[in-house]
Amino acid sequence: VAAALALRPASADEAATGTIDDSAFSLALQSLTQWSKVLGLELLACDGFVAFLASALAGPAANSEPVLELLIEVLSSSSGAFAIYAGASGQAAPASATPSPHLEGLVAAVVRTMGQLLQPLQQMAERPPAVLDEVDGARLSRWARVAASLVEAYTQILWVERAAADVVVAFLGACFLVHPHVAQCVFELWAVLKDANRDGKLPPGVLESLLQKLGPPCVDSLARFGRHDSPHSEEPAALLQLRDAQQDIVADIFCVSAGTSEAALVLAKLSEHLQRAEASKDWHGVEVAWFAFNGIVEALADEPALPE
């Protein structure tokens, strides 16, 4: 481990092919990732590891595959992961429990880097949908996976510290809108939130706040990328799979909002899309709005009492 931490990236485009053509830095990080996965090595406990990874996130290789794959592995396998579900005798630990200094430092470095990426990501999300080149698509998809892993393993980051929560929530919202391949990396967000809400892990007011901030971009994502004339899906089967997944997300948001002050949010947002599409005779827009409504109807038919 010490030898790996002494290495530095050879370029900003460090590959991770698993072959001898990879740089020593890349091969070392791939090895650390596998040691964590297979051997259960607690990398956060190794001297200098957090400083090394934080330095990598601040350096030219911050977006590279070996760096971010290692980061995702460490976030997911740390002993501090899923803390809101851990506790003596099956009782959940307090959501605000203080993590270890090593973990706290790493999460702070991740949020700091996400904050630096946020403005350009939001600018891309606000513009009309564009076809991403392979490099940008891979870079943004990796960071979307980092955000998804962070929220899954440390769900409390969405409310414990306001500044960090604002960055992460804004980053997730932009991911839903910038490109469907990026959006797909964060599709599990609402499954995580549904579970946390069902198990009583969300503090009062948190669900409503998340619905306000993340509900609209999720609905807009379906309206933007789920159209039958979408230029983003090369294969019809891929578009159908994307539409089905996004329809499920919209239905999940509708169901999880039941009984909250945001219960009408999804229907109101879909109605806006439908009315706008009808007024402009945008029939693909009309179809995708009705497709979303149909997903909600199917959810109610399957579970009339509304799932939690």
Could you list some keywords that capture this structure?
13 helices, 64% helix, globular
Explain the overall architecture.
It is a single chain. The longest helix is centred in the middle third of the chain and has 26 residues. Helix 2 packs parallel to helix 4, helix 3 runs parallel beside helix 5 and helix 6 packs across helix 7. About 4% of the residues have low confidence. By secondary structure, this protein is mainly alpha-helical. The protein is built from 13 helices and no strands.
Quick overview:
The chain is mostly helical and 308 residues long. The protein contains 13 helices and no strands.
What does the secondary structure layout of this molecule look like, with pairings?
Elements: H1 2-5, H2 24-39, H3 49-58, H4 65-77, H5 101-126, H6 134-153, H7 162-178, H8 180-184, H9 189-198, H10 206-225, H11 236-257, H12 265-279, H13 283-302
